[in-house]
Amino acid sequence: MQSAAIVGTGAPCVAATSQQHLCRSKLVTQLRGRPSVAGQRRTLLLRPQALGQAPDPAAVAGPGAGLSPELRLAIEQFITENKVVAFIKGTKQFPQCGFSNTVVQILNSTGVPYVTVNVLEDDLLRGGMKEFSQWPTFPQVYIGAEFFGGADIMIASYTSGELSETLEATMNA
């Protein structure tokens, strides 16, 4: 299996470290053999900070509530071990949709190291991430182990300066 996790250095892209590849491989391995979540109902949640409000706790069961405990733990561990993660269609070097390309370009322009995961490589990963984030589309960006948003939120937060503030706080934490 090819590594989809790539570390951005601000310079030309370099291959992921063995530890990052192992971490991603462990995530994909734990996804294999799990029941598909494709048929389950999904709730679209807008990022509360973008709307200026907090979500109703009674309406939100939590990320990945419908996933197996092992799968939820594997995803949580992966996004916790990497400060900035973008789950995209394609790779950092070859995004395969315009929205993924937009996210890659924004993250590249910040100069912050980040990891990408190609969701096109594994149907269980793609379905599992949709359930985990309760966000139906890709790309999905996690910063500081929290779901930040998709391409639209990345564009808005980049334009407003919120993204650079969030990344700076995360990298200095």
Overview of this protein structure:
InterPro entries: Glutaredoxin (IPR002109), GRX_PICOT-like (IPR033658), Monothiol_GRX-rel (IPR004480), Thioredoxin-like_sf (IPR036249). One of its GO terms (molecular function) is 2 iron, 2 sulfur cluster binding. It comes from Micractinium conductrix. There is one protein chain. This protein is of the alpha+beta class. It has one domain (6-35, 64-172): Glutaredoxin (3-Layer(aba) Sandwich). It has helices at residues 18-31, 48-51, 69-81, 98-110, 123-133, 151-160, 162-172, and strands spanning 6-7, 14-15, 84-88, 115-118, 140-143, 146-149. A four-stranded mixed beta sheet has the order 4-3-5-6. A two-stranded antiparallel ribbon has the order 1-2. Helix 1 (18-31) packs antiparallel against helix 3 and helix 4 (98-110) packs parallel to helix 6 (151-160).
Helix share bin: 40-55%
Overall form: globular
Spell the H/E element sequence: EEHHHEHEHEEHH
Superfamily at the CATH H level?
A: Glutaredoxin
Low-confidence spans: 1-25, 28-51, 55-60
Counting copies of identical and different chains, the oligomeric state is single chain
Radius of gyration: 15 Å
Number of domains: 1
- The total of beta strands comes to 6
In the CATH hierarchy, what is the class? Alpha Beta
Percent strand: 5-15%
* Adjacency order of strands in the biggest sheet: 4-3-5-6
- Terminal CA distance reads 33 Å
Q: Count up the helices.
A: 7
- CATH architecture heading: 3-Layer(aba) Sandwich
CATH topology label: Glutaredoxin
Structural class: alpha+beta
Mean pLDDT: 74
The biggest sheet, with number of strands, parallel, antiparallel or mixed sense and barrel status, is: 4 strands, mixed
Family: Belongs to the glutaredoxin family. CGFS subfamily.
Domain Glutaredoxin: 84-147
GO molecular function: 2 iron, 2 sulfur cluster binding; metal ion binding
Protein name: Monothiol glutaredoxin-chloroplastic
